């Protein structure tokens, strides 16, 4: 009985030579593992997207500090809620002339990026929600406006001059910092954010 089982198992062994089996295994690993290797290398060494010279920003690579702030309706908004999206984090105030000047281009950028993995978070340094509502005259922008009256989050980011903007990638890392106002809806700017969300 044992000899019969041995004969059966011997008869089922593959007829291909060992070198061919090794070559097949290597090709299978390369074909199946290629995408995984590419994904791992992208995670270990993220693709750099150079900042356009027109935006004149500082390239960074550090974790964004977690925070929770209330929106204008009193609902808590966490930065972590936007993991997987490019976050345009803008610190501003209604009493800041450069902030007011750049606001229309920020609204236009938000509109241009609709449908992409992109969100604008505008963190107000004003003393009250009433000041912000009065500023917008009842026409709030489509993106979240968050209140940081005690400047806790502002200080944690090291912000000292308004407006100040941080661009955070989908992994929660700060990729760029901009001090002062910008023309955010310029073609070069929109193209850059398009590449950031690819």
Structural overview:
The protein has 198 residues and is of the alpha+beta class. The chain contains 6 helices and 8 strands, in the order H-H-E-E-E-E-H-E-H-E-H-E-E-H. Strands 1-8-7-4-5-6-2-3 form an 8-stranded mixed sheet, with helices on one face. Strand 5 (118-124), helix 4 and strand 6 form a beta-alpha-beta unit.
Supply database-style keywords.
198 residues; alpha+beta; Glutaredoxin; 2 domains; 6 helices; 38% helix
- Low-confidence residue ranges: 4-13, 34-45
* Main beta sheet: 8 strands, mixed
User: Helix tally?
Assistant: 6
Strand order of the largest sheet: 1-8-7-4-5-6-2-3
Helical content stands at 25-40%
Give the name of the CATH superfamily of the largest domain. Answer: Glutaredoxin
CATH class of the largest domain: Alpha Beta
Compressed to H and E, one letter per element, the order equals: HHEEEEHEHEHEEH
Number of domains: 2
Q: Which fold does the CATH topology of the largest domain refer to?
A: Glutaredoxin
Large-scale geometry: elongated
Kindly name the structural category.
alpha+beta
Radius of gyration: 26 Å
